[in-house]
Structures are given as structure tokens and as C-alpha cells.
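Example with several molecule types.
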Amino acid sequence: MMPAGTRSGRLPHAGTVIAAENLTKTYGDVAAVDGISFSVSAGESFGLLGPNGAGKSTTMKMIGGVTGRTSGKLSIMGLDPDSHGPEVRAHLGVVPQQDNLDEELRVRDNLLIYGRYFGLPMSYLGPKADELLEFAQLTDKAKSKVDALSGGMKRRLTIARSLINEPRILLLDEPTTGLDPQARHILWDRLFRLKEQGVTLILTTHYMDEAEQLCDRLIVVDKGRIMAEGSPARLIRDHSTREVVELRFGSERNTTIAAQLDGIGERLEVLPDRVLIYAHDGEGALEQVASRGLRPLTSLVRRSSLEDVFLRLTGRSLVD
Amino acid sequence: MSPDVRRAEHPGAAEEARNRAFGPLYSRNARAVISRGLMATRSSNWLVMLSGFFEPVLFLVSMGVGLGAIVGTVEGPGGGEISYAAYIAPALLAVSAMNGAVYDSTWNVFFKMHFAKLYQGMLYTSLGPLDVALGEIFLALLRGMLYATGFTAVMGVMGLITSPWALLMVPASVLIAFGFASMGMGITSFLKTFQQMDWISFILLPMFLFSATFYPLSVYPEPIQWFIQAMPLWHGVELLRQISVGTFTAATPVHIGYYLAMTAVGMLLTTLRLRALFLK
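Resulting C-alpha cells for the full complex:
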């Protein structure tokens, strides 16, 4: 396992939009963020993965300058968000975990007023709001009340709102949590378009498919520390095998049979409901299982995913 | 334009960047918070606002006209006889200025902070907490001014205005509201739960009933008189009552000074507590 903070001391190179060094935030005795270091280049799509309470949202808040840090260095577009909050945020678009649209304003007015918060003139905001409603596929809802929108529409409006100041960096805190698959795919498509336009995306998620879809590079965070860093493919290569064999022998027998699987594949993991064999050649591993005279109820050979990496690094026990 | 002014990405960004006095707390854009409030009022809140106007009017009609029929005339400031309605009307205006300002700076702020998450959204923009505080206080005062104007007009229609000085009740109400709003917002920064918010009503109701609102202070024993005179509402009641008949005494500047001091202390407290109030 890679120790946390291995990248500290690396100098931010040209084109770095976010540089964090030993970033720490403690609440009382609890370190929500415990000395993490990372940097993000312009146009990059960067993910923070981690279980609940890993410190993802706190990190996002520190980037936005709405939560001060306890120690460490942080620079956004070359500015310290603690002392230059309003200027830093002029470059940021923020999509918080919970929608916080203005329920007292109508859909289009939400965009206009949000733009006013950035001090932008109405002559700019009118056409920009219409363009963003088009982008968010909400043009026919322009005059609707916010609470009449579906969850997916609210999310898209929140994203449209975050783009009103043409931000260079977009912070997305669990952007698709709670959405149905259709709404998620529409949202991913919109985010991918932004990425193509060169917007830097900073994304927290605990959906591994989302991270694989959207992130060029990510860090896995647990208990406020960085557990691993790299591209999704790289992380899978470094922390898992190419393939995984999933065997089910029935809940009663998984543990006893696991002893007989010793030596097959690179690594063995026994879960209550199944046994996982991490192997470079899944079919080969499955043949070895059969040759030992073991007959699983079901078997499945699949490619290793980011989820395997995630669970390996952050453990399987439930965190709340 | 001075050479050190950077070319901004967006109009306004450079202008905001120049203010370093409050650095991360202020971007000189309270007017955006004000436009938001006006737009929200236009599209959904105006009915609620209308009810706030009627409250003191209903009190005036029931107590002033109804009870006034039994009471008859009473001694007003300066010793002249005035109708009971004319006696309590300025007091009701002071109470309404207090209630409106306190509501706007406590419950309203608390709700927008913890439930509507409105400020959370605002503070992820170029706005700083001081912009939000100033904008909200301005809106509270604007509303207070509209109510005071309406109430003064009602007094005029009911024949309770005997002096042109009475028009000054409107700006004086705004001063009273400013004192309560700034102090209320500072106090709200210390409150975390609904139960604690209820303490506010617990303080306001007795202050409304006992601050010489419906009868003169002289009915109380001296120690209680001193206590009530230390409370803010009594100064508001006395100030507006004096203005309504145009009789001023040496106490007048004391009443005004009380609210100027209260406003100054409240604004200082609010500014010092901005992070606790908005950035959790």
C-alpha cells in the first residue's frame, strides 16, 4: 500500500490549477483530512474516491474557501482560498452534494441571480442563462418553479447554475447520487462535453463506474489520507489483478472450501457470500478449481474493476 | 485605471478583488443579495409580507378603538391630552419595527442557513458572508420602512396624527429596526437549535407587553422602571411617542443614542461572528 503523502514536495508545474500540500482539517480531535497532497492540471478530470466520512467533501469545501484549513498549503489558480475566497470562487463552479437551488425563484431566475452573486452584468447573464438552459435540456422549464422539477432536472439545473460564471474549475460533490440510470447517463454526457471544452473537473464519488467514465486520474481517500493515486487503469494494474473469479459454494461452505483453493491465482478473498480469486488468467484459475474436484454453485470470470481496488484499499467493513 | 489593476476574466471580478479590508469576507456585492430578496418577494413571498403589515393595524383597531372607548383620553408626552389610540399607535409601530427586524434577522436567517441552504449556495460564489449579512439587513430595513409608511398612513386616516413631526416616525422606525436586526443577527450566530431560537420569542413577548406600550411606565415600582428603561423596546416606544406629537425632551437624544449604540454593537458582533454565522 502506498503511504499517504508520497507526492508531497512535488513542485506544481506550469498549468497546475490546484496544488494541495499536506492539507489538513481537524474538528476537535478528529482529523477529517489528514495531510493530503495532490495537484491538478488545467483541463484534467480529477476524482476523489472514498467511503463516507473519508474527507472528500471537506476537501472540496477547503478548495472553495468556505471551510478554512487547519494546516498545510493550498493554492487555487495561484491564490490561497483562505485569504482570497471571493477571487478564487470567481473561477470555480460548485455542484454541492445536496441541491441547494433557490426554491423561491423560478428556474431561469435561479441562473440570473446566481450570476449576480458573481457581480456579472445582466447583459451577459440573459443570453448566458438561455444557453445554459439549452445545455441542461431545461429550456421548456425556464419559467417553472424549482420544486416542480424532478431530481435529475434539479441536478442538471444545479450544474447549469455552476457554469454561469464560465468557471475554469468545476467542483462536483457526488453529482449523480440518488439519480436513476437514465438521469445519470444524461448527466455524464453533459459532464463529458464540459471536459471536452477544457473545463477542469474535480469530482467526488463513490460510484466506481462514474469514476472510470469521467476521471483521467484519481486519488483514493480513506480516513482523511490518500491510499492510492493514478489513472483508473493504472490503479487496477497496481492494486488488483487483470481478472477476478467469483465463486459461490453456498454461505455455509465458502470458508471451509477456501482452504482448498490455496495457491490458485495471486490472492484469495473470502466473503460471506462468495470467494474471490484474483488472477491474471481467470479461465485458467477456474480450470484449476475444477481440477481440484471443487464444484461451485455458480462461477463468474470478470475483468478487475476500480471497485476491487477501492474495496481492497478501503476495506469491506461498513463505515457510516 | 491604475496599472496594478489586473485584467479580469469577468466584469466585476477585478473590482471585487480590490477590496482587501475584509478580504475573504466581503466582495462589495450586497446588492446582488438584495436583488435576490426582491425577486423572491415578487414571485412568492408578497402575501406573507402583507400579513406583517396588518398585524399592528389589527392591534390598533382592537386596543385603540375598542379599549380606547372605555379609556377615553390619556396624558401624552409633554402633558397634552390625546386619545388612547393616539397614545398606543406609536408604541405599536415600535413593536412592529422590533418584531419584523428580529424575525428577519433570526428565524429567517436560521431557516435559510440550516434548511433552505440558501447561504451555502451564495457563499460558493464571489459573495462573502459580509455581503450576505448586509444584504439581508438592508432587506429587513426596507421591509420595515414600507410597513412603517403604511402604518403611519393608517394613523393619518384614523385621525391620530396631530403634528407634521409624525412623518419622522418612518425613519425613526428604520433606526429601531436597524438596532434590532443587527443585534438579532449577531445573536443568531450563537444559536444552533430550534429550542434555542424559541428563547428569542420568550424575550420579545414580555418586552412587548411591559415596555410602556399600553400604559405609562409610572405604574411600576421604581426598580422595575429602571429595568424596563434598560431594555431596548422602551426607548423605541418613547422615541416614537415623542415624535408623534412633536414634543422633544432631554431624553430624546438618549433614545436615539441607545439605538445608534445598539446598531454599532450589533454590527460589530455580527461582523466578528460572520464565520460562525455562515461558514460552518
